[in-house]
Amino acid sequence: MVEIYKKNISIPISNEEIRLKLLLLPIQLQNKISKYSSNEKKQQRLDGLALLSDALKKNNRDEKDIFLFSYNNFGKPFISTDIDFSISYSGTAVILGFVKKGIIGVDIEQIRPIDCKQFKDYFTRNEWDFLTQNRYNNVHFFRLWTRKEAAAKAIGKGAFLDFNLFDVLENTIMIEGVNLKLTTELEGGFCYSIATSQEQ
Questions:
Q1: CA-based nearest residue to 155, from 48, 70, 75
Q2: 168-184 pLDDT per residue, tens
Q3: What is the pTM of this model?
C-alpha cells in the first residue's frame, strides 16, 4: 500500500533550531543538509526527514533506522531493501511517498508561470503535441513534468534518465522493464505525482 505524507512549511525556523535538529541526524545527513545556503532548503530537508521518521514509526520500524540512510549510485536515498521512499520539495511544500514492498517516486512542484518551450527536448513527440494543443498550459506542463520526475525517481535514476525517452500521458508506463502506475493531484497551488509499482 502506498502511503503519502505531506507538510506545509508555514513558519520558518531559526538558525539555532536548524542547528539543534541537525545534531539529531547521522553525520552524512548533517553534512549534506548544511551545504545548502538557504535556511528554507535546510528546513525543507529536515521536514522531509521528519516525515520519513513518522512513516517509519507508523510502520513499526525503529526510527533510528534513519541512521542507515544512504544513496544509490544515482543519488536515490534508501534505508533498506524491504521498504522504499521518495521525498520531494517545492516552495513551502514537502511530500514523502512510502511503500513496504515495491518502489516509489514522488515529485511536487508549485504551479507557476513557465516558458514551456524551453523544455521541449525533455518531452516525447506525443507529449509535446499535447502541450501545444493545450497552448502550453502551466498546469498541464507540471502534470507531465512531475510524472516524469516521479517515474525517474521510482526506478532510482532521477536526473540521469533521459526524460524524452518515455511518455507519461497514460496512467501506466514501462521504463527499463519496470511497470509503474502514475497518479497526479492538484492541491493548494501545487501539483504532485506518484509513480509506483504498488497498487495505490
A1: 75
A2: 999 999 999 999 999 99
A3: 0.94
